[in-house]
Write a structure and sequence with these properties.
By secondary structure, this protein is of the alpha/beta class. The protein folds into two domains: 8-214, Alanine racemase (TIM Barrel), CATH 3.20.20.10; 235-362, Lyase, Ornithine Decarboxylase, Chain A, domain 1, CATH 2.40.37. It contains eleven helices and 19 strands. It has a nine-stranded mixed β-sheet with strand order 11-14-17-16-15-18-10-1-19. An eight-stranded parallel β-sheet has the order 8-7-6-5-4-3-2-9. The longest helix has 19 residues, at 163-181. The protein is elongated, with a radius of gyration of 23 Å. It catalyses: L-alanine = D-alanine. Pathway: Amino-acid biosynthesis; D-alanine biosynthesis; D-alanine from L-alanine: step 1/1. Keywords: Isomerase, Pyridoxal phosphate.
Length: 365
């Protein structure tokens, strides 16, 4: 049976660690995208238990689902299309984010009495442009809606010395000054994500928004590992070998025969594939753990399965195989899979699972 095991004690540890590092700034824990694949509701509860001041999600629908599961604390969301019905989120006391005058009008029309404003300081994604910022702030003032926060998002925080970070911090300070000049108290000021929260103390302001670090994964792998940062990966992905068999020298493995055995080998079938969120880019690049040894993926990852080299291990069908975890037993980390696939650990943990892999929890209270 394939399983995603999420260690909620690791989540609590990470939240407590992050609170310690960023104090006195408040800690906003991001649980969007089903808690980065870890389970939004379970992670949210663990984060609250560990002292998270705020939670954050991307969409109003995520926010409403979290409220429906019983969450009652401060909760921010920020991503919506023009046809979004904000009324359910407003009824649940969710704090909504406005990017422009039109969106602010829709939020206020839905009955919101407070809102946060996002300014684009250089990511060129969501948020008001600097040219339109004064107009958005003035509209909030004129509508007499309470501005409970002003925020932005960094583009290059995983490279702490990148000049864009200083430029964005300066732009953010100027946006805050503009708000104050227009008679609007910015409220909770937040700019830093996980990497900036850990590596750029000057960017912390009143609060930080931490996503990937909550789950124990380093936000800046070229700078520091999870262990270096005092974080513990919370997710383990494991299953059982479906089949072990010998192959002869010259045998091709998996579609396209992109791997051909140069000697007699023993191979094993792992019953997970890209239909379960295993990246196809892991083909002949990633490793798994079987019987205490790292075993390379051979050939292409298929929809439902992949093949690994278990030569000399005495492996048998039914043996546990770990794709990635916290590394305690020598298994690969999600970061190892990210590097093998040319991507980031965020994508590895968020996409894994699908409908055929059960999620279980350790540390439930």
């Amino acid at each position: 049976m394939a399983e995603i095991l999420v260690d909620l004690d690791a989540v609590r540890h990470n939240v407590a660690r992050l609170r310690e590092v960023v104090a006195p700034a408040q800690l906003m824990v991001v649980v969007k995208a089903d808690g980065y694949g870890h389970g939004m509701v379970a992670v949210a509860r663990a984060a609250r238990e560990a002292g998270a001041d705020w939670l954050a999600v991307a969409t109003p629908d995520e926010a409403v689902a979290l409220r429906g599961a019983g969450d009652e604390g401060p909760l921010l969301c920020w991503l919506a299309t023009p046809d979004q019905d904000y009324r359910p989120a407003v009824r649940f006391g969710v704090t909504l984010t406005a990017y422009d005058v039109a969106q602010l009008g829709r939020i206020v029309a839905a009955g919101a009495t407070d809102v946060q404003l996002k300014v684009d300081t250089g990511l060129s994604r969501g948020g008001s442009t600097l040219a339109s910022w004064a107009g958005l702030v003035s509209q909030a003032r004129d509508l007499a809606v309470s501005v409970s926060g002003v925020w932005s998002h960094l583009a290059c925080s995983d490279e702490p010395e990148h000049p864009a970070n200083d430029a964005q911090e300066q732009a953010f300070r100027e946006a805050l000054a503009t708000a104050e000049e227009l008679g609007v108290d910015p409220g909770l000021r937040h700019l830093a994500n996980s990497a900036a929260a850990l590596l750029r103390p000057g960017s912390r302001f009143d609060a930080v928004r931490v996503g990937i670090a909550t789950y124990g994964l380093t936000p800046a792998p070229q700078v520091a590992s999870s262990a270096d940062l005092g974080l513990r990966p919370a997710m383990t992905v494991r299953t059982e070998l479906a089949l072990v068999k010998p192959i002869v020298a010259g045998a091709g493995v998996s579609y396209g025969h992109t791997f051909v055995a140069d000697r007699p080998m023993e191979v094993a079938v792992v019953p997970l594939g890209y239909g379960d969120g295993v990246p196809r880019h892991a083909s002949s690049r990633a490793e798994v753990l079987v019987r205490g040894s790292r075993c390379p993926v051979l050939g292409r990852v298929c929809m439902d399965q992949l093949v690994v080299d278990v030569t000399g291990l005495g492996a048998r069908a039914g043996d546990e195989v770990v794709l990635f975890g916290p590394g305690d037993a020598g298994e690969p980390l999600a970061q190892d899979w990210a590097e093998a696939c040319g991507t980031i650990s965020y994508e590895i943990v968020t996409r894994i699972g699908g409908t055929r892999v059960d999620r279980a929890y350790r540390g439930v209270r």
